[in-house]
Design goal:
- The protein is α/β, with parallel strands linked by helices.
- The protein has one domain: TIM Barrel (Alpha-Beta Barrel), CATH 3.20.20.
- Helices cover 42% and strands 18% of the residues.
- The protein is built from 9 helices and 8 strands.
- It has helices spanning 19-29, 40-52, 72-81, 104-121, 133-141, 157-163, 181-189, 219-230, 234-249, and strands at 3-8, 30-36, 56-60, 87-96, 125-130, 148-150, 167-171, 195-197.
- Helix 2 packs parallel to helix 3 (72-81) and helix 8 packs across helix 9.
- The radius of gyration is 17 Å and the shape is globular.
- A divalent metal cation 1 binds at residues 7, 9, 92, 200.
């Protein structure tokens, strides 16, 4: 069994020069990867990639930083895209109070609209939350039938324990950083069957490549760090997190 990258952005311009080579490395080294949209244009590109390659799946949605574009027309287009079987979730959606491109109330209202779209399409969700964990958790409590993943999980162990009955925690390259004490604590205490591995590439490159462009095959370094923290084999991490990814996105 091979690893999975549950969250990547292959349509990003940083892959324009060698995208085919990056995709070839995914084919050789990973079980599959999931390409994540953040606005309507990237959601369409995500589905195009998924249609072209059987080992790439798509997630569609509007990120809180881009939420100004979300209106009824965009929602209709996303609903149409979401009916394709290669679309495995609605995302990357949520709240971002760090950049605050739109007021909290606007972000919350449109986050709820996309959660309702996920319910309508019977899809899991990929949640982005930054400096907004309390509001994110409270909103998710309003939608008890929604499942999914908290991408690049930024919260405490206590909050993680509240979430893992319905949500997987996405763990990426930041786990390998020297200052990642909170993430290490979460990985140590949360059962492995509630964790999925991601890159968020081209961002958040793990050690030993920090500072360079990230790519999906670097999930290997996240898996090694998880194995080290949990004192288990990389093979066990691979097997369990890949099964988790399939359950999360209902693949296979």
């Amino acid at each position: 069994m091979k690893l999975v990258d549950t969250h990547c952005h292959l349509d990003n311009e940083k892959f324009d020069e060698d995208r085919l080579e990056v995709i070839e490395r995914i084919k050789e080294n990973l079980e599959f990867c999931v390409n994540i949209g953040y606005d309507l244009a990237s959601s369409k590109k995500s589905l195009e990639l998924a249609k072209e390659y059987d080992f790439i799946y798509a997630v569609i949605g509007v990120h809180p930083i881009d939420i100004a574009e979300y209106d009824e027309e965009v929602e209709k287009e996303l609903e149409l895209l979401g009916k394709n079987p290669k679309v495995v979730a609605i995302g990357e959606i949520g709240l971002d109070y760090h950049w605050m491109t739109e007021p909290k109330e606007v972000q919350q209202e449109r986050f709820k609209k996309q959660l309702e779209l996920a319910e309508k399409l019977n899809k899991p969700v990929v949640i982005h939350t930054r400096d907004a964990m309390e509001d994110t958790v409270n909103i998710l409590k309003e939608y008890p039938n929604i499942t999914g993943v908290i991408h690049c999980y930024p919260g405490s162990l206590e909050t993680a324990k509240q979430l893992v009955d319905r949500f997987y925690l996405g763990i990426g390259g930041t786990l390998t950083f020297k200052n990642s004490k909170k993430a290490v604590e979460v990985v140590k205490d949360i059962p492995l069957d509630r964790i999925v591995i991601e890159t968020d590439c081209p961002y958040l490159t793990p050690e030993p490549f920090r500072g360079k462009r990230n790519e999906p095959i670097y999930v290997e370094y996240v898996a090694k760090k998880i194995a080290e923290i949990k004192e288990i084999s990389v093979e066990d991490v691979t097997k369990i997190t890949t099964e988790n990814a399939k359950k999360l996105y209902r693949i296979g």
